[in-house]
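User: I'm putting together a small comparison set for a docking exercise, and I want a reference complex before I start. The sequence is below, and the ligand is adenosine-5'-triphosphate. Could you produce the 3D structure with the ligand included, as structure tokens?
Assistant: Of course. I'll restate your input first, then give the structure tokens for the complex.
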Amino acid sequence: MTDNVVSGNNFLRTIVKEDIASGRLSGELVTRFPPEPNGFLHIGHAKSICLNFGLAKQFGGRCHLRFDDTNPAKEEQAYIDAIQEDIRWLGFEWSGPIRYASDYFDTLYDYALHLVRNGNAYVCDLSADQAREYRGTLTEAGKNSPYRDRSVEENLALFDSMRNGEFDEGSRVLRAKIDMAAPNINLRDPIIYRIRKVSHHQTGDKWCIYPTYDFTHGQSDALEGITHSICTLEFEDHRPLYEWFIANLPVPAQPKQYEFARLNVNYTVTSKRKLKMLVDESVVDGWDDPRMPTIAGMRRRGFTAAALRNFCDMVGVARSEGVVDVAMLEHAIRDDLDKNAPRAMCVMDPLKIIITNYPDDKVEWLNAPGHPNRDDLGERSLPFSREVYIEREDFREEANKKFKRLVLGKKVRLRSAYVLLAESVVKDAAGNIVEVHCSYDAASHGADPEDGIKPKGVIHWVSASHGKQATVRLYDRLFTHESPDRGGEEFLDHVNPASLSIIEHCWIEPSLADAAPEASFQFERTGYFVADKLEHTSGAPVFNRTIALRDTWGKESDV
Ligand code: ATP
Ligand code: MG
């Protein structure tokens, strides 16, 4: 992995450095990435992964992967598997086994008993509506629950009955006894255990009560010896509660929570709930649809792990919310692919060229560079024959000087091959051009034409006799609106109707048919493409457009 993950600076690195300098961090730095397995990871999670794993790597520490699985109803094994694959693909490896918050359910239950015994928790029978009323508001203090002063014995007996499944869901909860007048609503006797009669993907039917996220997270950190528990800003108001649990429980360590701003990207939604809606309503073809801002989707689109890591580094880590321009992400992708993707040719809208002075049965294998600036990417061999395809838009019967492609009576160079002169066209009954007849200059391969008249342009091409057919999928941004889910608007209304177009029967240079799934290429003059991860090898080769060569979003295409 490149060092870019740990370059630059951010306030969390500064905190860790200070903690090392002051001796507050005497042992290893231990961080964790704690996804809830209720969907696929997205670009925002990529940032959290780069941050948590990146810090551990920079300071020679450890980063744990812990599934925060306290809400069994929404969680699935498929998500657990996908999340692991995504983290590894991004270039990171967690320390030790995969951990689950549910590994600590026994301990958490003991911690709850500890609070009850110390008079710090009670079973409350208020209904959800009543509890809301008692909670108060931001400006008004809450009221004590009538069940708040139950004796320790009564609470122990009721909590035991909760655990044994004797009560209905929603009829009782266990609450921490903190302060109903606290200005921070999170401290107004928060719920720590709920009755949920559902089986859990890790613990099966062992439990019918489940700890809340707040009662789980900090204690799990403490149990794992996490030194720096990094989360996003929406948990800032939960920090006093996190600290209250750590202070009031016999935990083995004292982790500290730090918050940073979520990554938001324009023209994108970064919420698993909304991404799930796109999947469930078949707006896209699944979580790994190349239009999705999921790690799996971006991977299938042809974004590289290095480019995503670079992007996460470029956006930095802040304490205040902001929106990053998607152009920055696209820049990171182009930058990486420009340097590393081998060149190739693909004709998407073929027009047949017949080279009348080229022998019918002759084939030449012409060498072309794999990459203009990268000798290490070697050379490729292009078959040249009497019939070739060019793009229909690269030929005109008449054109002004700005059109630097093939024009009747004029010359053009075929990339890495010969100069052609267009001599005549063949049209069908409807007047459409079906063939262009050209002559070629046999001395022009790698040399200027002997008559000294240089062609103005270079176009891409594929041999009609040796080329292979492929399907190309052109992807564009999924949303047409800069902030699809802000301002209370219905984000599904902003889906770009033209986010995918499929072009069948494109012509590719033959070696591309053998490209490995997930191999990236720059198709000359048309963009960056990737051999589809799943479908490339099953039938006609399939290439996904990762991104156009230049940023043309919102601009008229040039001639
Ligand atoms: P979502 O709203 O998409 O479900 P989440 O925060 O509920 O996000 P989790 O699975 O709980 O998703 O997140 C795992 C980790 O990733 C958390 O530490 C969370 O703070 C972090 N994370 C989630 N979204 C972002 C984001 N947009 N930017 C940075 N970090 C994020
Ligand atoms: Mg969450």
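The first strand starts at residue 30 and ends at 33. DSSP finds twelve helices and 29 strands in the chain.
User: Thanks, that's exactly what I needed.
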